[in-house]
Design goal:
The complex is a heterodimer of chains A (about 260) and B (about 300). Chain A is mostly helical and about 260 residues long. Chain A contains twelve helices and seven strands. Chain A folds into two domains: about 1-110, no CATH class; about 130-260, no CATH class. Classes of the chains: A mainly alpha (about 260), B alpha/beta (about 300). Chain B: This is UPF0276 protein GGD55_004523.
Chain lengths: ~260, ~300
């Protein structure tokens, strides 16, 4: 019996993605027999390939839970999340959301946010290149214009906000030697690639509202106002200089358009 | 059609290596004598960052082979237009010396399946693949090399021999072929065929590039030898011998060492390339001597 190609590939894909399905009709061997071990090579290639892609993108997450746990979690994700395109470099963008809903990992409440740093790291690595704005450019802006200015986040930059010290956890597990995290409190992390190296920075707590506001496209004046309202520790000059020096922004913008 | 031989931008008949990010800096610092570098197209489809930065720099000094793993030429459904456009942009940007893809499928309604899946060799599949290659070559504005697959199963529906299938595609689409000698060994062992006979029947005059890689070995449910195309070790000795047999027929051809998993240090890759280079040089010498004797 001959199946058309579309039906045959649907049957093949179906058996490939479900380990409990039999080898599809028409798949044979030189002996003329069905051989499940041979078909399983394809099944294995798909799931091991996807799990390894996740392990490569989420190495700290893997260190936090151990390889065996991670591979089981990756396999569970891969079962229901196939890459949307052949761009495996984008695979796992929503793996942190999956981790948040993955019951066996629920005791590690910080795990999804640590994974969000790693997801952002890869996006930052492949993001469009842009020259970050320099302090000199800001210094050249007339003081009365400053408050109405907006800063455009660099294409590689992202803020990850967490109730947990995710920056410290990421950093402590990033190197071979794991060091304990001393100060257990909420952190906001900036992931950015001003040039060719992706950098992960923990923002000073007093700068968090300012940075978040700017990334949400608030004017410098509004962002500073919100930060001052939250606490007297905020230092406008230091906060702005800090973010600009980390390469967080790639352009200045006034309401009528870009500042040259 | 042997257009690849006369194209000014063809790869050199030397050994080449897969380009890995962990070797970017060493390559630029040391400029090792490697015939060409090959990259998987899909790894360079991001907007920017180190991949493009380094590929721009490295292609100033080395010929580039662009190897696609995601076009799904054998899919029953139509080609992914967006993916074709990404390929065209990449080709326009880097002007690679060669572009190759696989006789396989990998996309389905459920998503990208991340493996090179096998095809039944029938008149229907043949027509489908020919349409897809015509469309691809037209969109990309260049000839592609189509790679022979490694397979673990057969299709009861198949009516056409694999070599005839590839030769017919090449004849109808004017595409070239990429001969993966490791794939030949893997499929030959897995399907009780003679690898040397496969090579002897292969239209080597259409081959623009050869691939060599290491396979893994296991057994199937009947305890028969089952080779897996793993790309995680040095080239095995029987594949080296089959490569020598191939070169005796084809003459020296650009030859890639594929080592994509458990990638070793760069010196180990260079040693693999040096072995292939020595075999290419020895075949060139053998041919020169034969020409001199004939004269």
């Amino acid at each position: 019996m001959t199946m058309d190609l579309a039906a045959s590939q649907t049957a093949f894909a179906d058996a490939l993605l479900h380990a409990d399905r039999p080898v599809p009709d028409g798949i044979t061997t030189a002996r003329g027999e069905v051989d499940a071990a041979r078909f399983a090579v394809y099944r294995n290639n798909v799931f091991v390939g996807l799990s390894k892609a996740l392990a490569q993108r989420f190495p700290v997450t893997e260190r936090l839970v151990g390889t065996e746990f991670f591979m089981a979690m990756a396999r569970a994700y891969a079962q229901d999340h196939k890459p949307a395109s052949p761009l495996i470099i984008e695979y796992g963008d929503d793996f942190p959301d999956f981790i948040a809903s993955f019951q066996p990992a629920s005791k590690l409440a910080y795990l999804p946010d640590v994974a969000r740093i790693e997801a952002a790291w890869t996006r930052s690595y492949y993001a469009a290149d842009a020259v970050p704005i320099k302090l000199a450019v800001l210094a050249a802006v007339a003081p009365e214009m400053l408050a109405d200015l907006r800063l455009v986040p660099h294409p590689s930059a992202a803020l990850i906000r967490s109730e947990y010290p995710i920056g410290s956890i990421w950093s402590a597990h990033h190197e071979e030697m794991v060091t304990p995290v001393a100060d257990w409190r909420p952190q906001v992390v900036l992931v950015a690639r001003p040039e060719m190296t992706v950098e992960v920075h923990i923002l000073p707590p007093q700068d968090v509202i300012f940075a978040t506001s700017l990334f949400n496209h608030a004017t410098l004046g509004a962002a500073a106002g919100a930060a001052f309202a939250a606490g007297p520790a905020f230092n406008f000059g230091a906060a702005l200089m800090g973010l600009v020096c980390l390469g967080a922004f790639s352009a200045l913008q006034q309401d009528e358009g870009n500042v040259p | 059609m042997t257009a690849s031989k006369t194209q000014a931008d063809a790869l050199p008949a030397r050994a080449g290596l897969g380009l890995k990010p962990q070797h970017y800096d060493a390559i630029l610092a040391d400029r090792p004598d490697v015939g060409f570098f090959e990259v998987h197209a899909e790894n360079y489809m991001g907007a920017g960052g180190p991949p493009h930065h380094y590929l721009e720099a490295i292609t100033q000094f080395y010929p580039l082979s662009l190897h696609g793993v995601g076009l799904s030429i054998g899919a029953a459904r139509g080609l992914d237009k967006e993916h074709l456009k990404r390929l065209r942009d990449l080709i326009d940007r880097y002007r690679p010396h060669s572009f190759s893809e696989h006789l396989a499928w990998s996309t389905h309604d459920t998503g990208f399946l991340n493996d090179l899946l096998p095809l039944p060799y029938t008149a229907e599949t043949l027509a489908r693949v020919i349409d897809h290659i015509d469309a691809t070559q037209q969109t990309l504005g260049r000839r592609l090399l189509l790679e022979n697959p490694s397979t673990y199963v057969l299709f009861a529906d198949s009516t056409i021999d694999e070599v005839d299938f590839l030769a017919t595609i090449a004849e109808r689409t004017a595409c070239g072929l990429l001969l993966d000698v490791n794939n030949v060994m893997v499929s030959a062992v897995n399907h009780r065929l003679d690898a040397a006979t496969y090579i002897d029947r292969f239209p080597v005059e259409l081959v623009g590039e050869i691939h060599l890689a290491g396979y893994d070995e296991t057994v199937d449910d009947a305890g028969e030898r089952l080779l897996i195309d793993a790309h995680g070790t040095a080239v095995k000795s029987d594949v080296v011998a089959l490569y020598e047999h191939t070169l005796a027929r084809s003459g020296p051809l650009p030859t890639l060492i594929e080592w994509d998993n458990d990638v070793p240090d760069f010196a180990t890759l260079l040693a693999e390339a040096a072995r292939a280079d020595a075999m290419l040089a020895s075949e060139a010498l053998r041919r020169t001597r034969r020409r001199i004797r004939a004269a």
